[in-house]
Amino acid sequence: MCFENLKGINLTTKDEISYLINKGGTLHTQANQALAAGVHSNEASIIGDLLVKEFIPHGYKRIVRKVGTIGQKTARENIKTQWHEAGKRFLSECESKVKQMSLNTKNLTISGNSHRLVQKFNRLRKIRNPISFFDTILAVIQELQNLDLIWNKDIPQELANRKEIAEVEKRERAGLRSISRDITRIARTVDSFNKLSISDQLKHYPSVQKSILGALDRLQTDAPDAERHCITSCRAAIESLCIKVGKEKDWKNSLNNIFSSDTDRKQVKGVWNYLSGKGAHGGHNPTKKEAEYCLQSTIATLNFIINRGKT
Asked: Three-state SS across 11-33?
């Protein structure tokens, strides 16, 4: 992507960080080339030696060579100074951009947390070597690239969206408790991270066991869309168990064979509908907390089906 042609376009924080990484990498290369050219000028050294041999009296040759070495060192120091100044200007640009960003944390506030991000650049303050300077600043920017960042100007809208999502979730859970009263009561006692216990409960239903353990594994990773995949696996587990126990190809028809009570059937369908609203069918990006609740409710539903008729 050519960022130089994007002036006036609102970039995402990731695009802005990528631009800084690309620019920093270019400056790093140019600084390396400039220093290499200043230090390793072989032709100048050869010509200097010839001049010394041909035209400088024998007693003065050592002095002239020393003056030449001093001149070379001075040139090198000048190049270092110039590129260190260029590095400091780039640092100011980076800090200016990062001051407009915050880490999109669970406890995000209107004021954001930009100061914590900018503090990451403090490690550059005492570095004088331009190459080390660019190495370090690139390391800091690349560290920022892996974070979930948000523009400070977008924080109010983000917090408003979170509040709306929380209110919708609260209503949906209330509706689920109303329809699936027994299942939600069981769900409160489920330890959805006790893998051995869950696996043992589902040992007679291998396909269901595989879906649930897969859902649990996804929830324990930071993979993209892990929460949605977890919920999809939960819904598939309910369908698979109904088909296995009810002995029909359609899971809803199987559910009729499992429960004679319409109330009990509605409890299972209530959980399935809740999962559908959170997963691939819902058009919603579920949070980890929502996915955990879905997994807990699913395990409770599976127990409800397996233990049907027991008191």
From this structure: CCHHHHHHHHHHHHHHHHHHHHH
